[in-house]
Amino acid sequence: MRLEFVIIFLVSFLAVGTLAGHNCKCQDSRGQYNELTVICCGKDPKANPGIVYYGGGNHQCTSPFGAIDSGAFVACCQSEGVGGAFCWD
Length: 89
Prior knowledge:
Elements: H1 2-19, E1 22-28, E2 31-32, H2 34-41, E3 52-54, E4 60-63, H3 70-79, E5 85-88
Antiparallel strand pairs: 1-2, 1-4, 1-5, 3-4
């Protein structure tokens, strides 16, 4: 019984965690920069292990706990010559 509760709790938490949070990707009017998004995702100033890069169709940096510093993310993208980043909750 206890194990079933733990499993249900973890599955619910992960399902909500993937939908909620803060997301960013490097992009501007010229397009989306997937490789740079990977780099900037790894340069989080707080070195937060809860920040994950999702490839596939999304190509976004995601934090289910809202831990991405969007200002630092935009600065990272701009430091590589991209106009900015798109960040959303």
